[in-house]
């Protein structure tokens, strides 16, 4: 019985993966005027997200759980992070902690 | 919060090459910005010191393509003063986002300043990546518990350097923390009320504009210990513009950056470097005279551009 459940889950996941096979495996987030845009990004597992800082002020992409963190990004500098596991990842800018946003992986 | 009008904002946008020279005579501080032709008034029996702030080494933007070059100009002006400053206060943001090598670059440049000593407090740009590890390894020695805060006396004036960027989180405002506030209370306790006190820290110790985090959340408790003194001057950086406020015997003053100006509080969707052409910005190099006269109300500030 346990095997069957596992198998079903396996099929479901495989189906899900297949359904997204053609979907983009990369996504972008812009940083402008002290805001992340989009503030809530939804992606599929396996997607690499690239942030680009359009401000002249330095910003960071810092996970609230410490899962990932960028160095200080200067103007037009980028940071990329791949997301493999489903979940909600909250992050902020370490220099301007009011700047908060999320990446939802599902 | 004091009302800041547009005219005041424009006057305050003078930027590069602007270091404040503070002159102390009998505990009454007066200040002026250094311009090429400016000279510090060496008050008889007094002394002068220089405050520089927000050097942001590594910054490159529309308003300034080379923050080291503008700092070099500034250092040349300090060195041209007829009376060398007794010491220099750097009120933080030495680096722009802890760019690799920026601390070294600044340290090398500041070796060229003709003065006895330079005192530092960190800005959030100096500590956010590593929680202050590199900053404190360089400048923590000799400070209280190697935490970065410190006090010293010079010719009868008591100076206190506070750190308000190491708990810089939550709402993005500065914070001193209980341990430092308790230390401050003990540090000030033996002083007589007539002792002039100068406090310096990076983020303003008054609520300049909390929406942008231009405030230190627990500054009130620290300032409580300063109220009994007849002459208190609080020098901050962080906001890259001259703003002043007088509250009782406490005079607050924020310094210009040597790298780039920022918008007046609320005058833009967000803080950050003003995007103005470099040529315009250089025409906005300013001369500001600030006089702090005992017994009078607000600081007298006169800003005028050189170009």
Explain the overall architecture.
The complex is a heterodimer of chains A (106) and B (307). Chain A is built from one helix and eight strands, in the order H-E-E-E-E-E-E-E-E. Chain A is globular. Chain A starts with a helix and ends with a strand. Chain A has one domain: Cupredoxins -  blue copper proteins (Immunoglobulin-like). Chain A is α/β, with parallel strands linked by helices and 106 residues long. In chain A, 17% of the residues lie in helices and 39% in strands. Mean pLDDT of chain A is 84; it is low at 1-22. Chain B is an alpha/beta fold. Chain B has a domain at 17-158 and 240-302: Purple Acid Phosphatase, chain A, domain 2. Chain B contains eight helices and 13 strands. In chain B, the strands form two sheets. In chain B, strands 5-4-3-1-2-12-13 form a seven-stranded mixed sheet, with no helix packed on it. Chain B has a six-stranded mixed sheet with strand order 6-7-8-9-11-10, with no helix packed on it. The two termini of chain B are 32 Å apart. At the A-B interface, loops of A face loops of B.
